[in-house]
Design goal:
Number of strands: 4
Distance between the termini: 48 Å
Largest sheet: 2 strands, antiparallel
Radius of gyration: 22 Å
Shape: globular
Amino acid sequence: MLKKLFGFDPAQHNVRTEIIAGITTFLTMAYILAVNPNIFDALGGAMSKSNGAVFTATALAAVIGTLAMALIAKKPFGLAPGMGLNAFFVYTVCLTMGHSWQFALTAVFIEGIIFIILTLTNVRKWIVDAIPISLKHAIGAGIGLFIAFIGFQNAGIVVNSDATLVTLGLKLADGSFNGVALLGIIGLVVSCTLVMLHVRGGILWGILATTVIGMIPMFNVVGADGEVTRAALTSFGGIVSLPPAINDIAFKFTWSELTTSKGIVDIIVVVFTFLFIDMFDTMGTLIGVSEKAGFVDEKGNVDGINKCFLADSIGTVCGAALGTSTTTTYVESAAGVGAGGRTGLTAFSTAVCFALALVFAPLFLAIPPAATAPSLIIVGMMMMNPVTKINWLDYRESIPAFITLVVMPFAYSISDGILIGMISYVVLNACCGRFSKITPTMWVLAVLFILRYIFI
């Protein structure tokens, strides 16, 4: 039954490993349950955090999208409303362009339908297969750097600097040690030690150990709503409740705003932007995490990527219907892969955790970002292996690959890394007269990407 449902082979896979991997993925993704309601709170009304509907919609979208990945694609990837896409939804479409959140939900719904069509017609796979293998290797490594950077930020080890953009955050302004950063460093030492000793599920145990250590008062680690983590973890009173209803935001599509010329133009721009960002964020994540999981063949093609795309599309459509922004495959899935997850059973376990979070949200959210940050750093290191497959002496391949790799963390965007990398590949190889290496698809994509940066 497990093989039929999740692609689980008893001869190759272990149930305990898959479940631990699923829990690990969930713990590294769980921050979205706190972040998404905070972002949507800017819209007020039904979308306000106090209403609680966005929290429920976020968790349900993650459950549905991840279950689709488990049952359709049978891959160990978790899905949830995407970071960046939620900010575009709130701050650009609603607050800057002046549209209602119902308009934005309608755009997300249309985007999801278009995604399903592109997937069923193999257009998305066709685009992915057209990417040169050197760029595919760079994408995986670039995502590794990107999530490691996120890990250092979540741990407070790297912080903002007006002078140098980023700097170490080990000490506070008064010269005292930053408790969060110190906890992150301790967690990194603990997690790295467990991984180096080949402890099964070492990444997960590192997260749990760091959370327990964070209960010591000197670290002063607080949860998403300002409650001290140690208090949340030592008192179970009031942490179990029924999920808030989503009646006020579910299925609230609007078509009246599309009857004006401005509405039509805006919906095209918004849908295209959602589509663009989601496609290449998802594509980059799937390629990068699949590289780590061993799902990429010698030609750089991802096994079963079309089914992954279909699951992603279904998650987006259902998420829009529930009342939240675009659902996408999470790069944090690499944490589960790093813990040994290889089948849909891992994704199923992640989905179950998101379902449980609906009832035990305060307990799950008590795990501080500093506790999950070490797992992102370690997995980021693990994802650097593909760079060994790039021919660094062939500058016509290695320079575009390097650009792809470094733009992701420097621009804080997976999609920008892919787009600029592909543009550089076409432009630089054309300048070298190496036209035979540029496929028609790459020419078309490069032109579209350049136009994207000019007009969007």
